[in-house]
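Subject: sequence -> structure tokens, single chain

Hey, anyone have a minute? Need the predicted structure for the following. Not urgent.
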Amino acid sequence: MEPIPTLRLRGHWLEKLGFTIGSKLHIAVREGELVVTVAGARN
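Reply:
Had a minute. Here:
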């Protein structure tokens, strides 16, 4: 089986940024970037 790229983020710092357990996320793909934001959060 071919390896699949994986990204896992863990840490209390995520909660400080608003990423709480159960938060819905918005993921945007840009050239050379993966942008993850809490859905509905004001930027």
